[in-house]
Design brief:
It is built from 16 helices and eight strands. It is α/β, with parallel strands linked by helices and 376 residues long.
């Protein structure tokens, strides 16, 4: 499939976000290719994902005896021409080019979404949960793009605004989905139950991926889950959504230090990061693996024509700017009158930070030269 597409290993690495060295090991037979990487290859070159995954399962069952002999080569499909009767839906937002870390989580989601339902009327549902700023949407969109080749009828996407004061109504979302599925306006029912029934009917026999981003609660998304076994649903929410029966749940945690550093490097560039190791280390320490905070802080550093000296530290660590100077969104909810310098998220973590919302005192500390933390 790779040879038929004419892509080099370097091009594969750039276009699929998997390292060139990983593709070299996979294609040389040194290691079995992962399911998510195989699907990303199928999506890139237009190969048949079902055939590819079948070959992958055969290779996993008998690594020594499998050589692919007797299996028909996958065909490289041309895109469907515009204006034909088959018009796949493509509502996914663009994937972020510098997605960093989350490889195990991505592989886990792709595995769940593409394995199919475990019975009639059942389909895979994956729920990604976690606090604000952990990168739930970024992960969901990235995983959805990796799995897109498995759903030739397209992808539906909606931001349910679950964290807003007025989340989107399921009835309005169903009407939007039905329009995207080419249902005429005058054929869209008025009642939410009728719209949900029509939605399930239209998706019968189709293989589509539905991404429900930023869900408020289980009641909001329940009408948006179809019954077609060829479909799959990916949900993100700040809540656990325990009311969604049979869902596979993935709780996001903060990024590990190496991934946090790699994220900062991807935002400001490796040369800039190498030249300002002190500032980068301080930002990574302060943001403590919160992806949104790392991107905000990295973007601010990238916008400066000349960055701070390697010895400098963010104002949120020295107390010069108070709570409002910290790039970590979690601190915005801490009372400004709290008589303490911000303790890094790496020490108190999100659960302890949530207690700050009630006005509890924060440990009074700061980063000092020559040591990681010094209490005062």
């Amino acid at each position: 499939m790779k040879d038929a597409s004419g892509l080099t290993l370097a091009q594969l690495g750039t276009k699929t976000h998997y390292a060139r060295s990983s593709w070299e090991r996979w294609l040389n037979g040194k290691r079995l290719v992962t399911r998510s990487a195989a699907l990303s290859l199928a999506a890139l070159v237009g190969g048949e994902p079902a055939w590819l995954l079948e070959q992958l399962e055969l290779a996993a069952a008998d690594p020594q005896g499998f050589d692919g002999a007797g299996a028909p080569p996958p065909t490289v499909r041309a895109p469907h021409p515009a204006g034909t009767a088959f018009a796949p839906i493509a509502q996914l937002p663009a994937d972020i080019a510098d997605v960093t870390g989350r490889e195990p989580e991505t592989a886990q989601l792709v595995e769940v979404l593409t394995r199919g339902g475990d019975g009639p009327g059942r389909l895979p549902v994956a729920v990604v949960t976690g606090g604000g700023g952990l990168g739930k949407t970024t992960l969901a969109v990235h995983a959805a793009h990796q799995a897109a080749a498995w759903f030739p009828d397209g992808q539906l996407y909606v931001d349910l605004r679950g964290a807003d004061p007025a989340p989107r109504e399921a009835s309005d979302v169903l009407a939007s989905f039905l329009r995207a599925l080419a249902v005429p306006e005058h054929d869209i029912p008025q009642a939410v139950d009728d719209r949900a029934a029509r939605y399930r009917t239209v998706l019968t026999g189709r293989k589509a991926l539905i991404v429900l981003d930023n869900a408020h609660d289980a009641a909001q998304i329940r009408p948006l889950i179809p019954a077609a076994p060829g479909c799959a649903v990916l949900v993100t929410s700040r809540r656990r959504l325990s009311g969604v029966a049979g869902a596979h749940r993935l709780d996001l945690d903060l990024l590990a230090a190496p991934d946090a550093l790699a994220l900062i490097e991807s935002v400001i560039g490796p040369e800039r990061a190498a030249a300002e190791l002190g500032a980068v280390a301080a930002i990574v320490e302060c943001c403590a693996g919160l992806p949104l905070a790392l991107r905000i802080a990295g973007a601010r550093l990238a916008d400066r024509s000349t960055g701070p000296s390697p010895r400098s530290r963010p104002a949120c660590l020295t107390g010069a700017g108070g709570w409002t100077s910290c790039p970590c969104p979690i601190w915005r909810s801490v009372p400004a009158s709290t008589p303490a310098t911000p303790h890094c998220l790496s020490r108190i973590r999100l659960r302890q930070a949530s207690r700050c919302r009630s006005g509890a005192r924060v440990p009074d500390c700061r980063v000092g030269p020559g040591r990681r933390f010094r209490r005062r």
